[in-house]
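Protein Entry — a single chain follows
Fields — amino acid sequence, structure tokens
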Amino acid sequence: MSWLRDRGEKGASLVETSLVLPLLLMLAIGGAEVGFMVIDYMTISNAAREGARTGAAAADYVGPGGVDADDLIVEAVEQVACNLRYSTLERVAIYKADENGNPIDPTNLLNEYTGSVDCSTGSTGLSCANGCPWAPASRYRGMPEPDKVGVEVVFRHEPVVGFLPFPTVTFRESAVMRLEPDTRG
């Protein structure tokens, strides 16, 4: 009689495992999906900060060959965005910020760049989409209060695992820094 009881317990273990294992697998895959999204968010956060740092240092730079401060900012953001694994960079906005970090005049003091990033060639894939009204040469870097440059980066995260119902999510991250004062005299 005891052998019948042992055999029944083996069947119960199999049934319990078959019920719990799919739930554990879905939980593990969901955790991995959230992890991929967090990694890409941290990459974009770093891209916004790197763009703002470059903008603060480049300030009103206009160099030979038409290269200006915005080109340097976009290039810095693109270089960091090449580390995105499961997301797509959609837009970079460079704007004059107020003391709270918000755009002062989104119509006249915001430059918007869109396009696709091609990390294999190293060339800039983003181009100005709104005429870029805030010219780098017009940025004030004198004392007592230089302008503040803000960089907003927008990216879209696509789900990696197709069989779980994760939506496509769009994130925005921005960073603001004060232009470095002109100390050349």
Q: What stands out?
A: The chain has a mean pLDDT of 87. The chain has one domain: 2-178. The beta strands are 87-97, 110-115, 126-128, 148-157, 169-178. The chain is about 40% helix and 20% strand.
